[in-house]
Design brief:
Number of strands of chain B: 11
Shape of chain A: globular
Number of helices of chain B: 0
Distance between the termini of chain B: 35 Å
Helix content of chain B: under 10%
Largest interface: A-B, 28 and 30 residues
Mean pLDDT of chain B: 93
Structural class of chain A: mainly beta
Oligomer: heterodimer
Order of helices and strands of chain B: EEEEEEEEEEE
């Protein structure tokens, strides 16, 4: 069974600073990988996804993520954070075979200081 | 607009009551899912259905039941057997293997 670890529960950055949110997964092969964002009391919105091919993936709102097979990681990055990026971020993995449901990490809450 | 509609947005349950959360999608997706979200625990899978009239237990199915009589609908019943039902419930659907599309959630509170 797959699992996802997001080691940072809470991160605070200054507006305009760069951001990196960490995600490590456990799975026997290369999984499908996703990053979602959630505003308080809302559903989840997809930021980006990786299925195969180029390991650097571009997403919406200026986010990108890099798949590193050797490190079993899929870290999310943004060069310059905006106050509107404050939210909770979830990394998720999906299996190419077997159960289709995504497995989620516990999330990282991002706070942005002015 | 295509999407997933969850209702109600807020739901209050008395001890010993069963309550049903609605989830409807017009995306023509085969697979639908119910997740439970608690602070600091991410999303945990309750039940999922990959086709009409078929569903499987997820990781935390005890105290919950579902049905899938129509492709568009996947209601979740929180039974009195669920000892700690207060949580945020999210419904999702997928067209196959790939990204999940989420509803806006239902917040259930036991009073």
């Amino acid at each position: 069974a797959q699992s996802v670890t997001q080691p940072d529960i809470h991160i605070t950055v200054s507006e305009g600073a760069s951001l990196e949110l960490r995600c490590n997964y456990s799975y026997g092969a290369t999984p499908y990988l996703f990053w979602y964002v959630q505003s308080p009391g809302q559903g989840l919105q997809l930021l980006l996804k990786y299925f195969s091919g180029d390991t650097l993936v571009q997403g919406i709102k200026g986010f990108e993520a890099e798949f590193k097979r050797s490190q079993s990681s899929f870290n999310l990055r943004k060069p310059s954070v905006h106050w509107s990026d404050a939210a909770e971020y979830f990394c998720a993995v999906g299996a190419p075979t077997g159960r289709r449901a995504l497995t989620f990490g516990s999330g990282t809450r991002l706070q942005v200081q002015p | 607009d295509g999407g997933i509609t969850q209702s109600p947005k807020y739901l209050f349950r008395k001890e010993g009551q069963n309550v049903t959360l609605s989830c409807e999608q017009n995306l023509n997706h085969d697979a639908m899912y119910w997740y439970r979200q608690d602070p600091g625990q991410g999303l945990r899978l309750i039940y999922y259905s990959q086709i009409v009239n078929d569903f499987q237990k997820g990781d935390i199915a005890e105290g919950y039941s579902v049905s899938r009589e129509k492709k568009e609908s996947f209601p979740l019943t929180v039974t009195s057997a669920q000892k700690n039902p207060t949580a945020f419930y999210l419904c999702a659907s997928t067209p196959g293997r790939g990204q999940a599309f989420f509803g806006q959630g239902t917040r259930l509170t036991v009073v």
